[in-house]
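The authors assume throughout that readers already know how a fold can be written as discrete tokens. For illustration, here is how one protein appears when written out as sequence plus structure tokens:
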Amino acid sequence: MSYENLEAAVNQAAKRFLELGPVVTADVSGASGDTIFTMDATGLSEGMYALDYFPSGTTILSIGGDAPTNTVEFSAGKNSSGTDSVRFSTDANGVEGLGLVSGTSIAWPGVSFTPPSDAAYATVEKLPISSMPVTLGVGGEDDEKGILQLSLYFPSHLGEGALRAAVGKTKRYFTAGSTSTYSGAVARFQHAKNSPFFRDDTRFCCHVSIYWHGRTTRPSPTHNT
């Protein structure tokens, strides 16, 4: 397990959260077998969903459609008419993301980026903290610690409340004990804390620091003779 793979696991978690769409709730009514909700879910694949439902028996009818737009249809599974609601998320754990777009509203390290003039965006930074040996010798393990910093910028016209909601989603997503895995390397998120809110020109801003750690395998040293 290399440090590069561990860092890739952190990047993967950041990308998924920032691009993950919001949870959608819809009121539904009908009889057993009726299609009650159709949702645009471009890029959705089997297994990338969660569904909280009432009453018991709600099922997914289909995931599919003509490219580039897929639809997700749900069946109420009811035996009589009535009104209930479904809650849908493209994340298997039913959590929400910020619904941003890489290159347009997400700035990655080392990649050219022009902030949008009138829309929310985020910048991503990775800060190393320490590297400490856990076991000795060739093939031993090191404990790596770092910070994933997500800086959120929201236009003033959206209000400070929109930024506060985004910060709350960030801290809930990177809850203590959550993990991200890439090629066998596991990044474990310990806690997240945010800076005070501040103004930057026409935006409300906040930095969220997400602390993580993971283990890497020490490679064999190379000696020149």
Notes: Confidence is low (pLDDT under 50) at residues 27-87. The radius of gyration is 21 Å. The first strand starts at residue 24 and ends at 29.
